[in-house]
Amino acid sequence: MPLQGALAAVAYAGVALAALRVVLSYKSAVYAVRRLWRCADEWAQAYQYHEVPRFGCDGAENPLFRKASAYVAALPSLEDADAASVLLSSASRTNGGLSLHLGPGHTARDAFQGARLAWTNAGSERLVLRVRRHDRTRVLRPYLQHVESVADEMEQRRRDLRLYLANTRGGWASAPFTHPATLESVAMDPELKARVRTDLESFLKGRAYYHRLGRVWRRSYLLYGPPGTGKSTFAAAMARFLGYDVYDLDLSRAQHGGDDLRALLMRTTPRSLILVEDLDRHLLEQQQHNLLGFMDGVASCCGEERVMVFTMRGGKDGLDAAVLRPGRLDVHIQFTLCDFEAFKALASNYLGLRDHKLYPQVEEGFHAAGARLSAAELGEVMIANRASPTRALRTVITKLQNASGAAPARHSATHRRNTSWSGAVQQQWEEQPAEADEAAGDGAPPACGVVFGKDAPPMRELKKLYGLIRIRSRREGSGVAPFEGDAHGPPTPGNHDRER
């Protein structure tokens, strides 16, 4: 009897420990159940296996092996695989140079058009693609084309970009394109930035779509606004996002009917961004019909897979509608001077600030008569005072006071929503009707580089009034900080805390 009680106690203890282990390692248990289910499902299915060797029968390298290897290394499922090889490569620019690769005997899974596929490293420089037998006819060829397309795009983005300038011999001289701007670092309205990103991604994947429509695979953008608002920087960020070389094209070469210009365009390569700056100045200095012919004829004279970016220092009011029509300029983006929201984004990038005790004074300066500063001007102030965020903010406050006193009426005009979209995404990003603009009133202040209204006028005005009352009450209670220099060191989390 005592022996039976001891055995029962041991059994209960074992069950309790097993239950405790399951509770403590719930995720492991779920993973184990899923793995068992996957094994049972794989055992019940009929598969076909396709080997992708590195070398062919003639000893030549198989290009598909290199592209498939790059594609598999980028699969999200590789991070969840049972095992993977971790390599450190100076060529990799992400994750500190660390990259995952499919080691011998390892398997990574993928999905395509509702079918489940798997890649296995069979060793001896061979990859094996497994696909369900009833899916092979439907997805095999499209999937391999998808693998090739994605690998080509990844290779294009990894390569070193080049900047091309026209030389005196009618050709192009090149240098490494080292501009560090990215879409993530550009200070602009997040919603519009997402739209631009989506539009660029749709263009990258649009070869078959454009060909099905019988249209040349290219897209054109107009960036317009005052100097210093970030138009050229945004063009550089677009090129880096696309992984395209940049051709800086001087329209003054079109003075003899555009023959020299067309010859230059013939020498550009696919996957390039062709930048044409100061379009409005060239429209005034040259015959307009020559430039219009150049903008229309670029598709036929320099091939496909190009993005054309035109910049203008002024507005669109004085331009002929024929210049602005889709086909010549597909997407229009207005760049404006910075408001307080854009200033905070710049302060975060340049100074590492999320908040500061002087922010209420800066906000009041932006609200005072609609004062605005350019992104270039704000950036220079922050670079010059990067060792002292407080001194940088005080300098900005002084500049805002001078700007509001110099031309209050010019900046107080209502901003209109001037971003227009056409082409494949016209229905999503079409220009706001005039009636909607009039109903929107002031709206939210535009972010740096983009005019984009959000709030209705009553709510926005109440927010402004409340903010001014709060700012004035703070100033009456604590006084205005003097504009002397700051002894704090470089911007660190500790320094920021002290300044707040």
UniProtKB/TrEMBL annotation:
Organism: Urochloa decumbens
PANTHER family according to UniProt: BCS1 AAA-TYPE ATPASE
This protein's name: AAA+ ATPase domain-containing protein
Residues covered by region (Disordered): 403-452, 476-500
Protein family (similarity comment): Belongs to the AAA ATPase family. BCS1 subfamily.
InterPro entries documented for this protein: AAA+_ATPase, At3g28540-like_C, ATPase_AAA_core, Mitochondrial_chaperone_BCS1, P-loop_NTPase
Taxon lineage: Eukaryota, Viridiplantae, Streptophyta, Embryophyta, Tracheophyta
Pfam family, any one: AAA
Domain AAA+ ATPase: 217-339
Residue ranges, compositional bias (Low complexity): 441-451
Organism superkingdom: Eukaryota
SMART domains: AAA
